[in-house]
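Researcher: Next sequence.
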Amino acid sequence: PASEPGSRTNWVFDRVWMPDRVRQKVSPRSGREAGLGHDALNYMIRAILTDIEGTTSSLVFVKDVLFPYAREHLAEFVRQHGHEVEVRKLLAQVSEKASATLDDEQAIEQLQQWMAEDRKVTPLKALQGLIWEAGYRNGDYTGHIYDDAVASLQQWHQQGLRLYVYSSGSVYAQKLLFGHTGYGDLTALFSGYFDTTSGAKQEADSYRKIAQEIAEEIAQSFCDDSGNAGSGSAGLRPDDILFLSDIKAELDAAREAGMKTCWLVRGNEPDTQAAHPQVRSFNRIVV
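Model: Next structure:
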């Protein structure tokens, strides 16, 4: 492989971009050997943590379908379901986040403002999930998943890798998306889901917490299957986990926490100064 003209830091493997300083940690192998027809990245990992928006799923679906649907139905949903225990709890959290005592109409206004500002506020994300559920169940839309993401996730699951999701959308919303795709219900592929209750996606401590929870989940699963207390996850470290995202700041945080990273650039141009290997699709990633 040859370095990108004018750059001393990145190497190009056909459609895979890799910083020179991490070449020794992530070994590329011929994509033709992997049946891909292009060079690919070969990771030695035991679990995969993936983002959704721009990674497994199109940003267009999220921004042009899900978000407008939630905006359109938010006020009606709160007015119709505001008496329900779960919704009342979320409305109380809205008041807490706003540092004010809000009635339902004021809470609606606050939620609409947060949506306009694209704020990652937990009660907003939870309410959006409840609203989106109605849309999925009514058949107003199906969850979008890239073809290459479906194929790779299914293959990795068959290989025995543990798959997890980390998104700013609520865990409930994540399960709705993967449970109502054009490929059917894909939720069985995943061993766990994480949202902003685990921390902000651009903070390293969030990934440290998630890595610990994944290690504990795998240990418990092995114990349940074999009766041997946790030996199946012995030594599971953050660098046994590969994090996939389209957002550099998230990848930076995951890398700081010790995870391996891969940047899904999709239709964008690679960042020649980034510290993360970059690919255009899941089928460039070999594990």
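Model: Confidence is low (pLDDT under 50) at residues 1-16, 20-38. The longest helix spans residues 59-81.
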